[in-house]
């Protein structure tokens, strides 16, 4: 998903990296795309490591579940606000999206990656009464929110954000961290899952703008769609 996100960002732009972790994306944007980057993360150790990369102008330690007053100084400051695999960890994703949208320039964009709970591996396991949290992946033990494509669209709509592009990162049903197996399922059930396009989507990457900026950006519908293999 990070490769897809990076491909959507223009060179020499101002970027807010939400959930920057140890700063790998920020370092790439700084080194290869000549971007000015500000980062936020909740983990203190990650913030320190990100600061030490030298790629970020500033890195804030922020708990988005408790608000982000530290960022009020950056209203309409960023060309892009990147939210990489963060919303699924939050109590109120709608409020966070609404607050972060205030930080985007009138002609700026929000780029968000979100895991897809409708992936085939989860469906297969649920049919066998399995829903086990894991260290990483769709059922990461720190995930408290789960999304499908439609609920993502509804979320952005409720936050008054206009989706103009949706990309997909795909993955097979078996061989992911969810440890799914179709062997004990009836062939008709497996076929039904296989025939559902969303069963192959592991993550969605959404590009959106503020609805008030629709005329500035000149686009009001989903402009492009692509798939990336996991």
Cα distance, first to last residue? 9 Å
Order of helix and strand elements from N to C terminus: HEHEHEEHEHHEHEHE
Report the structural category. Answer: alpha/beta
The rough form would be described as: globular
The overall pLDDT, averaged over residues, is 92
Count of strand segments = 8
Q: What profile does the largest beta sheet have?
A: 8 strands, mixed
How much of the sequence lies in strands comes to 25-35%
List keywords for this structure.
27% helix; alpha/beta; single chain; 8-stranded mixed sheet; 230 residues; 8 helices
Quick overview of this protein structure:
With 230 residues, the protein is α/β, with parallel strands linked by helices.
Describe this structure in words.
With 230 residues, this protein is an alpha/beta fold. It is 27% helix and 27% strand. The protein is built from 8 helices and 8 strands. The protein has an 8-stranded mixed beta sheet with strand order 3-2-1-4-5-7-6-8, sandwiched between helices.
Compile the SSE list and pairings:
Elements: H1 2-7, E1 14-18, H2 24-32, E2 36-41, H3 44-52, E3 56-61, E4 78-84, H4 93-101, E5 104-115, H5 120-127, H6 149-158, E6 161-170, H7 187-194, E7 201-210, H8 214-217, E8 224-229
């Amino acid at each position: 998903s990070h490769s897809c996100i990076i491909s959507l960002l223009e060179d020499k732009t101002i970027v807010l990296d939400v959930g920057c972790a140890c700063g790998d994306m920020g370092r790439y944007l700084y080194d290869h795309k000549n971007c000015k980057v500000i980062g936020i993360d909740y983990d203190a150790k990650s913030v320190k490591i990100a600061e030490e990369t030298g790629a970020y102008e500033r890195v804030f330690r922020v708990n988005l579940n408790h608000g982000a007053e530290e960022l009020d100084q950056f209203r309409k400051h960023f060309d892009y606000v990147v939210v990489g695999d963060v919303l699924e960890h939050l109590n109120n994703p709608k409020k966070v999206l609404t607050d972060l949208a205030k930080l985007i320039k009138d002609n700026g964009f929000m780029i968000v990656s979100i895991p897809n709970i409708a992936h085939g591996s989860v469906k297969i396991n649920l049919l066998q009464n399995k829903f086990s949290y894991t260290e990483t992946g769709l059922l990461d033990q720190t995930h408290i929110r789960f999304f499908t494509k439609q609920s993502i669209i509804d979320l952005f709509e409720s936050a008054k954000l206009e989706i103009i592009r949706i990309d997909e990162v795909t993955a097979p049903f078996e061989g992911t961290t969810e440890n799914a197996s179709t062997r004990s399922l009836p062939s008709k059930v497996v076929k039904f899952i296989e025939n559902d396009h969303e069963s192959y989507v592991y993550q969605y990457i959404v590009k959106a703008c503020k609805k008030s900026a629709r005329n500035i950006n000149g686009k009001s519908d989903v402009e492009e769609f692509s798939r990336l293999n996991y």
